[in-house]
Amino acid sequence: MGRKPKAVKLVVAAKDGRRVLLVRRRRDGLWTLPGGKRDGESESLKSCLRREFHEELPQLRLRKYHLWKKVGGVNGISGRRMSDAIYFTRGAKGDLTIGDRREIDKAEWRRPWKLKLTPTSRYILSRLLSEGFLKR
């Protein structure tokens, strides 16, 4: 992937490895991982992640996170094009108070396997499961 990804996603896994932090999009009711798109080419991926996370869940404080993968190309599940940087951490502290209610209407620690997920989130979580980062 030659260019900088257009968006970032953050996988926040609970210590048990079975639940992840998910937010539900208001517009279509699908669950997704927290994150969003960069504000132009000059915004760094980490700055984008901090900004988006603070906008969505301002009361939550993250443990140290690291870049897991940059994912580009075509989503093997949906056929959609992706250009994401995926960050991973095990846990966060604080309340799941929603900041931007126009964008999301719910945030929960969930077992994601039977939820209506966005195609990108489904793809990312299935990859993390296959690589042993998450458990069923």
Short overview:
With 136 residues, this protein is α+β, with helices and mostly antiparallel strands. It has one domain: Nucleoside Triphosphate Pyrophosphohydrolase, CATH 3.90.79. The protein contains two helices and nine strands.
Explain this structure to me?
This protein has helices at residues 45-56, 119-130, and strands at 7-13, 20-25, 31-32, 35-37, 61-62, 66-74, 81-90, 92-93, 104-110. The chain is an alpha+beta fold and 136 residues long. The protein has a single domain (7-130), classed as Alpha-Beta Complex (Nucleoside Triphosphate Pyrophosphohydrolase), CATH 3.90.79.10. The strands form 3 sheets. Strands 4-1-7-6 form a 4-stranded mixed beta sheet, sandwiched between helices. It has a 3-stranded antiparallel beta sheet with strand order 3-2-9. 30% of the residues are buried. The model has no long low-confidence stretch (mean pLDDT 90).
Instruction: Kindly estimate the percentage of residues that lie in beta strands according to DSSP.
Output: 35-45%
CATH superfamily: Nucleoside Triphosphate Pyrophosphohydrolase
Low-confidence region ranges: none
In CATH's first tier, which class applies? Alpha Beta
Tell me the strand order in the biggest sheet. 4-1-7-6
Structural class: alpha+beta
Report the sheet with the most strands, covering strand number, pairing sense and barrel closure: 4 strands, mixed
Helix proportion of residues, in percent?
10-25%
What is the N-to-C succession of helices and strands?
EEEEHEEEEEH
CATH architecture: Alpha-Beta Complex
Estimate the mean pLDDT confidence: 90
Gyration radius, in Å: 14 Å
Large-scale geometry: globular
